[in-house]
Automatic annotation (TrEMBL):
Molecular functions per Gene Ontology: 5-amino-6-(5-phosphoribosylamino)uracil reductase activity
Biological processes per GO annotation: riboflavin biosynthetic process
Top-rank taxon, per record: Bacteria
Originating organism: Pseudarthrobacter sulfonivorans
Pfam families assigned: RibD_C
Signal sequence extent: none
Protein name: Deaminase
Alphabetical list of InterPro entries matching this protein: DHFR-like_dom_sf (IPR024072), RibDG_C (IPR002734), Riboflavin_Biosynth_HTPR (IPR050765)
Domain Bacterial bifunctional deaminase-reductase C-terminal: 13-193
Length: 211
């Protein structure tokens, strides 16, 4: 009787971003989600939070998000009810932070510290983990993972604002050329657009040579 070979499972890697129409991750003076989150979008976020995700982030995002999560859990003002619930819930989600400056023990629950090369570490995580590895903010980490060709899915939620004067954190600066095959799209609350792609890093414009 022959042996049955079971294929090894691996994790998918998703870069997951929220952006303004002109490509900024945030804007000075604007509330979270640019004040445009609605019940349909928030319900979807809740459903996503129940999936098998491990979040990947850099030190800057870790410091910001862990502090906000702790403040929200302590009942600090300044967060809407929806923002507070989202931030507090992040404590229970597995997280991996890449940093050469942070030291253990980390205060944010369920967070693993990796001090070595992030690209190499994520390649190993993809091979050894299951479920979905998803970035959390961390624009430079997203850029490095995309450039290395490790990203399986590139997902955006586009908010209908242009923040030319107040926009902060330009998302696409420093990106390589990338072709995108759309695999999913959806509209939330009649105004937010989800766009999900399979990305392929290009060595140059189409037709200019091997990709």
């Amino acid at each position: 009787m022959g042996e049955t070979t079971v294929a090894a499972s691996s994790a998918d890697l998703m870069v997951d971003l929220i952006i303004s129409l002109d490509g900024y991750a945030s804007a000075e003076g604007w509330p979270g989600w640019w004040g445009l989150e609605g019940p349909e979008y928030l319900a979807w976020l809740g459903q996503e939070g129940e999936k098998d995700y491990t979040f990947l982030l850099g030190a800057k995002t870790y410091r910001l998000m862990s502090s906000m999560s702790e403040e929200s859990a302590a009942g600090a003002s300044g967060f809407s009810e929806d923002e507070g619930a989202s931030l507090t819930g992040l404590a229970a989600v597995p997280k991996v932070v890449f940093s050469s400056t942070l030291q253990e023990p980390l205060t944010w629950p369920n967070t693993e510290l990796v001090t070595g090369d992030a690209v190499q570490a994520v390649a190993e995580l993809k091979r050894t983990r299951t479920g979905t590895l998803s970035t959390l903010g961390s624009l430079s980490l997203c850029r490095s993972l995309l450039t290395a060709g490790l990203v399986d899915r590139f997902r955006l939620v586009v908010f209908p604002v242009i923040t030319g004067s107040t926009g902060r954190e330009r998302i696409y600066d420093g990106y390589p050329d990338i072709s995108l095959e759309m695999v999913n799209s959806r509209t939330f609350d009649g105004r937010l657009q989800l766009l999900e792609y399979i990305p392929t890093v290009l060595s140059g414009p189409p037709g200019s040579g091997p990709t």
